[in-house]
Every structure is written in C-alpha cells, then in structure tokens.
Amino acid sequence: MRYLPIIFTTALIVSACSPKSNYERIEGKTMGTSYHITFKADKHDVNAIKSMIDTRLHEVNQSMSTYIEDSTISKFNRLPSHQSMMIDKDFKQVLGDSKTIFIASNGSFDPTVYPLVELWGFGSHMSVERLQSPPTDEEINNLKNRIGLDKVVLQADEIHKTHDGVGLDFSAIAKGYGVDVIASVLSTKYGINDYMVEIGGEIATKGNNEKGRPWKLAIDSPVLGSSVSNRKTFTTITQPAGQTLHVATSGGYRNSVMYDGMRYSHTINPKSAKPVTNPALSVTVLHDSTALADGWATALTATSYNQALVMANQHHIKALFIIESKDGKGFELIKSNAIINDQTPN
C-alpha cells in the first residue's frame, strides 16, 4: 500500500463556471494534493458553503492527520497496548470501512502496514538499488507483530491496540473519505443535487453537469512518466442518469521500477511484506462510497493483477483494470464481472 501525507488547507478559490452559468467551482489544496468542486448553486450562498467545507475538512484533518501531533490518530499511534481512548465519528467511520475491506481482501488492504513501507525505503521514493539490497527476513519478522488491522480493537466509541508499536495511517482511504464528506455537505446540508467533487483523482458525482447531462469521467492512460499536466485519456465512465457515482483509481505506473525482468510497484503487499510484482498498471473501482472505492482500489493494487481480478470477481467489486497488451505496445482494458453484468457505461 502507498501512503500520502494528509495535509488539509482551507484557502479556496471560488469562481463561476461561466458568466451565465448557475454552476460554481471551488478549488483548493488538501491531503498533499488538490481538490475541485463543481456544483449547481442556484440561490445558495457560495461563501457559506465554502465555510462549511472548511470546517468539515478541518475536523477530518484533526482526526486523521499523522502530521498533527494532537490529532486523534497521532494520539492513538503513541498509545501503549491495551489502553483505550475515545475516537470521533470520522475516525470511527474510516476505521470501520478499513476493517470491512481488510477482512474481505484477506489483508491486502491494511492501514497498519506503514512500518514496512518505511523499512523498504518507499516512503517517498522507489529505486532499483533498494531491490538489489532488500530488507532481510529478520528485519521483516521483527515488524510482523506490529502489522495487522486485527490488532486494532474497536468497542463502541473506544479503540485500543493489542501490541505495542501498532500504528495507523489512513492515507490510502482518506482522499475518498474526504470526497464523501464534501459531497455530504453539499447534498445533506444544502440540498444540492447536481455536483462533482474530486480530491486527487477520487470522485463523487450526482445529478447533471452544466450542460444538463450526466457527468462523464476520464480515466488516464497508464503512461510511465505522465503527470497531471501531461496525460492522455484511455477510457471514460458516464454516471447513469438519476444516480450517484463514486470512483477511485489506484496505480503504480507513476511509482514503479523494472528489476531483473520484473516490474515492482511502489505498493507493499501486507501479506508478503514485499513490493507487489506485476500489478495492474491502473485499477479503477466504482462503489457505494468514494471511501470504499478508494480502499478497494488500493487493495486490488496491493497484489498481482491475476490475483486482483479473482478477488474483484469473488467480492462482486466493480473494477476496471488497465494492463499491458500482449504485444507490449499498448494497453488493454479488463472489466470485472460486476462491471460486465451491470453494463456500467464507459
């Protein structure tokens, strides 16, 4: 699993989509990336919406940022084993979603794997040199009693850890949850039924876009060396009319290396305690919430493509896999059975 810093900022730029449009756009920085919100404003006070989003992002940040010393997650990570502490509603929701995916994926998704990421030296950079001199079995075994979400126990609104040194990092699911939080502000607090919310590529949509049509989302081609400003669309997903859409994409093509004829991902497989070999270049998941889509996209990236496709089919996960074509000159789109059977437009 790959982890990114959870860093929220509340400096938002608000602008209209066009002079005659009643759609508004809010943009800003969050979780070490950027977010973009487009919505049908009608007569709503955009500044009030901005303020409410600021407030909720601050609350989530105070709950789950490992970069804030007195955040809920930082306090838990310092907590001795078997000592309980209270958690807030955001933390409880993300922990619950994480446990659901952890159990269903047989541990492929695991927010306690961060020590292994650090051991392999993949916290911010991956290199062939590290693969040439990997951690020893002894070094890996010394961390095993700290790995496993089953070592974090939730009872009502309190949690404790069963072993000293166990820590959590929700970065592999937090962007998706952040999207859900903002979407909830728009729909529940203000009754806005036409919106698109995006944080670092994880997206939730509802209703129609400015042109009165269901939202259409692009999935990038997994081109090595591509970036947000230098990308190509490989396929698209169109939101079914009158429904919501929750989408997350994970992929190692921007963080992988070739070594000894094998492609190694930046992602660590929690079960093998080693970098993932031959994963799908890109995995996009559609789910009931963006948090669940985000977590499942990570789980399916944290194993080989063949195993990931089996896992998606076993658990009826709507997943789109982009893999290298057999001739090695392009890419191929593979749909999980849930996508095929549902005939989700793309």
TrEMBL record:
Similarity comment: family membership: Belongs to the ApbE family.
Reaction(s) the record says it catalyses: L-threonyl-[protein] + FAD = FMN-L-threonyl-[protein] + AMP + H(+)
Name of the molecule in the record: FAD:protein FMN transferase
GO molecular function: transferase activity
EC number: 2.7.1.180
Pfam name, any one: ApbE
Membrane topology: Lipid-anchor
Species for this entry: Moraxella oculi
Source species taxonomy: Bacteria, Pseudomonadati, Pseudomonadota, Gammaproteobacteria, Moraxellales
Localization: Cell inner membrane
Highest taxon of the lineage: Bacteria
InterPro entries named among the record's database cross-references: ApbE, ApbE-like_sf
Cofactor(s) recorded in Swiss-Prot or TrEMBL: Mg(2+)
PROSITE patterns membership: PROKAR_LIPOPROTEIN (PS51257)
Keyword Nucleotide-binding appears in the UniProt entry: no
Function field: Flavin transferase that catalyzes the transfer of the FMN moiety of FAD and its covalent binding to the hydroxyl group of a threonine residue in a target flavoprotein.
Keywords, in A-Z order: Cell inner membrane, Cell membrane, FAD, Flavoprotein, Lipoprotein, Magnesium, Membrane, Metal-binding, Transferase
